[in-house]
Amino acid sequence: MTRNTSLGLLATMLAATLLAPAAAQAADTSLAFNIGAVSDYRYRGISQTRLQPALQGGVDLGLPQGLYLGAWASTIKWIDDAGGNANVEIDVYGGWKGELAKGFTLDVGALTYQYPSNDLNPSANTTELYAALSYAMFTLKYSHSLTNLFGFADSKGSGYLDLSASFDVYDGWTLAPHVGHQRIINNGFYAYNDYALTLSKDFSGLVPSLAVVGTDTDDYLSPKNGKDLGKSGVVLGVKYNF
User: Fold this and answer.
1) Residue spans of the chain under pLDDT 70
2) CA-to-CA separations, 160 to 82, 165, 179, 184, in angstroms, rounded
3) Three-class SS string for 118-136?
4) pTM of the model
5) Which distant-in-sequence residues (6+ apart) come within 8 Å of 220 by Cβ?
6) What pLDDT, in 10s, does the model give residues 161-208?
7) Is 184 exposed, middle or buried (0-12, 13-18, 19+ CB in 10 A)?
8) Ordered DSSP codes for the chain
9) How far apart are CA 11 and CA 86, in angstroms?
10) What is the largest CA-CA distance in the chain?
11) What CA–CA distance (Å, rounded) separates 157 from 170?
12) Which of 1, 36, 42, 123 has the fewest CB atoms lying closer than 10 Å?
């Protein structure tokens, strides 16, 4: 897949969200969309775009009884760095979210990361199960891979554990700290910890954000320019929810 084709795929997805009819919403069902851009697409602390900007967008469908489905896409560069061809990531997910007891919310589901025509061996395509428990402003989440993890050989069963929180600090501004640990089966050399601190505010659907992101590893280097993809940095973002 060429870069123009992958960008076209993302543009088509975003256009589809803009044109989706509101009539699709039914009782106990909700439909929400988002589009945005970031100065660097960081996932679990590692840059997916060679420390460069990305375009992003998604759609979420809320169903009765706490069920949900969704899809999200972003431009990327790391597949190209690894010798493949995909320039877009497409995530498809679904699950259930509901209150277990007063103040405690459970979110369980499955998520598949797809990199069309990535041409890597092992494939970069990855599927995970996840479970997140929230209480007040805190959320603890664990994700477990059912496949090889993002192209690492023999890495099925890898896990990512993260703890995050969300605090209202002033006049609608939210401060969200995060720490996480990525474990990679049979590839322990690449295990690492990551952290982030994000400040954001929702202006009637328009959400600007400023984040400090980093990891404790220097083992993720871009083959294109040798840059440390896990180094500490500042990420600017803007997203519109509708």
Assistant:
1) 1-27
2) 22, 17, 11, 9
3) CCCCCCCCEEEEEEEEEEC
4) 0.88
5) 46, 190, 192, 228, 229, 230
6) 999 999 999 999 999 999 999 999 999 999 999 999 999 999 999 999
7) buried
8) --HHHHHHHHHHHHHHHHH--GGG--TT-EEEEEEEEESS-EETTEESSTT--EEEEEEEEE-GGGEEEEEEEEE--HHHHTT----EEEEEEEEEEEEEETTEEEEEEEEEEE-TT---SS-S-EEEEEEEEEETTEEEEEEEESS-STT-TT-TT-EEEEEEE-EEEETTEEEEEEEEEEE-TT-GGG-EEEEEEEEE--BTTEEEEEEEEEES----B-TTT--BTTS-EEEEEEEEE-
9) 15
10) 52
11) 41
12) 123
**For residue 15, what are its two tokens?**
């256009």
One-letter amino acid for residue 161 of the chain = L
Domains and CATH numbers, the chain: 3-241 (2.40.160.40)
Which contacts qualify for 154-159: CB closer than 8 Å, 24 or more apart?
Answer: 154/185, 154/186, 154/187, 155/184, 155/185, 155/186, 155/187, 156/185, 157/185, 158/182, 158/183, 158/184, 158/185, 158/187, 159/183
Q: How many CB atoms lie within 10 A of CB 44?
A: 20
* Tokens describing residue 187: 């590839």
List CB contacts of 147: < 8 A, sequence separation 6 or more. Answer: 125, 126, 127, 156
Q: Which of 33, 56, 61, 60 is nearest to 43 (CA)?
A: 56
